[in-house]
Amino acid sequence: MRLLRAPFNLLSILIATTFLTIPAMAQTTISNIDDSSAWLQPGTSTPNFFGNANLSWMAQNVTTAGKQLDGASQEFHVGSNGPAFGTGLWWATFTPESNATTFQLDLTINTDQNFASVAQAIEFGVEQALSGVNYRMDVQCDFVGGAWSFYNPSTSSWTSSNRNCVAFTPGWNHLTFNFQRTTCPAGMSSPSGQCVQWTNMIINGTTYPITDVSGSNLFSPGVSTAESNNLLNILQLDLNSANAPYEVYTDEVSLTTNGTPDGSGGGGGPLPTPPSNAASFPDLQVAGGGNPGTWTLCSGTTCAGGQNGGSSSLQFSQQPALSSSGSMKQTSTGTGFNTMYYRHLGCPNNNCAAVKNMLEDMYFQPASTTNIEQLEFDPDLYNAGFKYFASVACRLKGTNSGFWYLWNSAGDFWDATTFPCTASTILAGNWHHFQLYVTFDTSTQSYTYQTFVFDGTTVFQNLGKTYSALNLHNTATNTNIEQQIDNDSSTNPTNSVYYDKYNLWIW
Predict the structure, then answer these.
(1) Which uninterrupted H or E stretch holds 415?
(2) 278 to each of 337, 349, 380, how far by Cα in Å?
(3) CA dist., res. 63 & res. 74, Å (int)
């Protein structure tokens, strides 16, 4: 549960100097947070919201000219007919990063015509709950008090920084905030002995070191919490005594850390940790890579569906890439043409009947989503002639588009979920983190979708959706991964998707 805090502070700076931003060791970036479903309660369209500004709301995918930079922005509206000084708080929830100690929040913000006259304050923040301690990296600009401040949860108060702040200049402003979790300074206590420091901020390209008003480094202590480990991005808007409404628009929002999601590399967060005896298949985007099998084209409408009359290709050691070995590039060309490549990995310990769990953890980047009908992802099992295809698809076009789909093997059809997946979800030109955990029961010829995490946000956890395997009436036995691109009906489109850090665990 998020709690409201006292009002806060934002934007006129006096002294500028160059300063180190987030260290070069940063390992994880959550991009396009303004487009993410992390702002919504899982499986719903209801925003994460808390406050007494009862006429407030949030909207995504705002395409109004001048109110977006990359095609779609996020809008926050705050208003109230209740007591004066109403507040509205929104937050996005991501997979915890227990090993993260540096945090960089980067965003652009645009305000409406009422902002300068009716806004009391605005707050931006990152919060990390870790092992029963909450670290709140919350900064505010108090337009009335005229200072940037850092929140101290142990005293429920704001500590003024050395930087002045006034209402934002009309139009877009680019803000970057840098923090680190480190040992507490003398005189400040925390249950873990660690505090968070606000090191600097960058406004429209100029860097401003942050201290308190005396010139000492500005810290905030960790405080005890009953919350599970988490990682949040927050935004809070405050009204003044008139309670007149206003709006802000944010775009190109990202959070970069020097950590990794607890679920990456197999385990942590809502995902299980593979046991030491699990079969591990790392870097499957590499043609060989020490793994069994080869990526093989499954051509023809009876294999991948779609229409005839197209072409497919698969290339290795490609750019863009996340790993030094390069990415794997899959391309599909043709109207309504589907391209699917698969890789057989064999049976761990020569016993596919013993397979109970699969955890797929990989990254992908669409070159464009304009002419994609659907993208499909498959960790699969064949055993004794039964086919267990634990496929997941993001459907962008066609019947009931805009959602994630699950594959019903025995029924031979896609089953729609209520979990949204749009072009913004798999935004082109950005890396997306895909983590899927599925269980299998070969004694009952069934498989169950358990947990799915996408871009650090839990799409579903312990879903328990079970389907029956399809009887192929043969003796097929294998484990398998697949990637498929389904083209739309436009004239001869070409779609490409890059894959990297492609890992699978089976046990």
Answers:
(1) strand 413-420
(2) 37, 10, 16
(3) 9
- Phi, psi at 391, each rounded to 5°: -85, 145
28-257, what's its fold?
A: Jelly Rolls (2.60.120)
Q: Could you give the CA distance from residue 122 to residue 109 in angstroms, rounded to a whole number?
A: 11
3-state SS assignment for residue 35: helix
Confidence (pTM): 0.54
Gap between the Cα atoms of 182 and 10, Å rounded: 25
CA 387 to mean position of chain CA atoms: 31
Residue bearing tokens 């009953």: 226
Within 8 A by CB and 6+ apart from 29, the residues are 254, 255, 256
Report the candidate in 462, 498, 482, 477 with the shortest Cα–Cα distance to residue 350: 477
- Domain coordinates of the chain in residue numbers? 28-257, 279-506
User: What are the C-alpha distances in Å from 42 to residues 32, 47, 308, 319, 463?
Assistant: 18, 9, 39, 34, 12
pLDDT tens digits in sequence order for the chain, 507 residues long: 233 333 333 333 333 323 333 333 336 899 999 999 999 988 888 999 998 878 899 999 999 999 999 999 999 999 888 777 888 999 999 999 887 889 999 999 998 777 888 889 999 999 999 888 899 999 999 988 899 999 999 999 999 999 999 878 888 999 999 999 998 999 999 988 889 999 999 999 999 999 999 999 999 999 998 888 899 999 999 988 888 888 999 999 999 998 888 755 554 457 888 888 999 999 999 998 889 999 999 876 778 888 878 999 999 999 998 888 899 999 999 999 999 999 999 999 999 999 999 999 999 999 999 999 999 999 999 999 999 999 999 999 999 999 999 999 999 999 999 999 999 899 998 888 899 999 999 999 999 999 998 887 789 988 999 999 999 999 999 999 999 999 999 999 999 999 999 999 999
Q: Which CATH number fits domain 279-506: 3.30.230.40, 2.60.120.560, 1.10.10.10, 3.40.630.30?
A: 2.60.120.560
Please check whether the two domains, 28-257 and 279-506, share a CATH topology.
yes
